[in-house]
Give the backbone structure.
Amino acid sequence: MLQTINIEGSEWTTLCTLTASVNGSTLTFSPGKYINAGTTRYETTDSINLDISTPKVDTDYQVWLAEDGLHVLTKTVDTEFGDLPDNYIDLLAWFTMPAASIDLSNVTINVKKIS
């Protein structure tokens, strides 16, 4: 289930036209762009599919937008989130996937909508 965090923005502050959807174990971001202070920081004309594997333990996920695309960072009780990607722009989504979940249908995925 997607839980949208609405943030008011504009092309002169921040605007993001990427939108998220879920199908099974795939989190998809639509084509779109991220604009900050009137400058396009990221743009894609293709959908981006992130396949989320079934975790063996409860796992926290963060989806970061960087100038070279989307990056998924993970954390468990035994590990920490990895390093942020170079030239990161913004955190777009975050969620916790319980151990042995076969897909994202029962997972609350927090997604920013900046419009």
